[in-house]
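Contributing new records

If you add data, match the layout below exactly. Sequence lines come first and carry their own label; structure lines follow with theirs. Keep one chain per record. Anything else will be rejected by the validation script.
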Amino acid sequence: MKKKTTKSSGNVFVDLGFDPAEAAVLQMRSNLMSDLRLRIEKQKLTQADAAKRLGIAQSRVSDLVRGKWDKFSLEMLITLEARLGRTVRVEFAA
């Protein structure tokens, strides 16, 4: 049986049928959540410690590490990155 493959657009959300503008925001949110989870993991922070560093409730850290992307706006994720001393930049592709 031959399987059909389709080349990715580079944004999984576009590939899933989201409007390109919404897909761009979803991709940014996904990238930021992934980065925040990795930072928490690399620094071996407990959820309670991460909550203190990020200035949010432990339950919100739980949502973050469990990938509940629908609970975080792009603005909030950028704020959390800043609270870890990181700068978020948006790059434009032609």
